[in-house]
Amino acid sequence: MLEVVFTESAYASFRLGQREGRFENVYSFVMHLGTGDIANITPSNYEDLEQLIQKLNSGDDIRVWYSSIPDELCGFYWLMDRLRILSNTHGKIYAIKQPQFDETDESIKSHVGWGEVDPLDIYKYISIAELISDPMRRLIGNLWKEIQYENAPIRAEVNGWLCSVPESFYDSYIEKEIDRQPNVFYEAVLIGEVIGRNMLGISDSFIHQRIELMIEKGHIEVEKQAETSGYRRYLRKMHTKSEE
Q1: CB 200 within 8 A of CB 237
Q2: What does CATH list as the number for 167-243?
Q3: At 57, is the secondary structure helix, strand, or coil?
Q4: What is the mean pLDDT of residues 121-147?
Q5: CATH topology of domain 2-154
Q6: Distances from the Cα of 152 to the Cαs of 147, 148, 162, 168, 227, in angstroms?
Q7: pLDDT in tens, 53-70
Q8: CATH 1.10.10-classified regions of the chain
Q9: Helix-strand-coil percent breakdown of the chain, rounded to 5?
Q10: pLDDT by residue (tens digit) across 201-213?
Q11: Phi and psi dihedrals of 63, rounded to 5?
């Protein structure tokens, strides 16, 4: 069985599981497809993709691990496109989408991507693997072709499907967390709460870029510049000076 993941953190977890004897072969295609230009994309480890296809044709089964976070969901769609034209493969393709909640006798947890799951717990999710039929593989591959043609700034899951969305798609989440902050607040704290409270699966650098745009538009302003990282600066809500 061949395992496929799409983020650095997931690959690290699966490699640990591999050392524990839970997985045989792990392939990672990390391309950060949730944001940016996707018109012409090729993984840096293209030879691994060729090897994966060869093994699939030879009779090895593959399991594709993905979730709702953009990079993993895009990776799944991208891989289905790469496998779309294959027919009569001797191996089968299974997919495991991360459940929204993980319930145990003691608690309910929610993870953002497979990299957040304890490496020793990942194996238990194999029971929810679903066989990907040839028609479904072609459907998802064709959808990726459409998304690639649209080449929007970012992509996100909407109503269970991957969609092209505008750059401002996540701004409401950032604005909501700004409203929770005091008049003067630490940017690093804001970014952490956008990520932690909303579990969107987007990067801190992307949130920082959107905050920069909000500053340019006059929605917030810089109270005190950072001496090192830009995330360490203090920001101020624009309406507060007149209220002091």
Answers
A1: no
A2: 1.10.10
A3: helix
A4: 94
A5: Dna Topoisomerase Vi A Subunit; Chain: A, domain 2 (3.40.1360)
A6: 8, 8, 12, 11, 34
A7: 999 999 999 999 999 999
A8: 167-243
A9: 45, 20, 35
A10: 888 889 999 999 9
A11: -120, 125
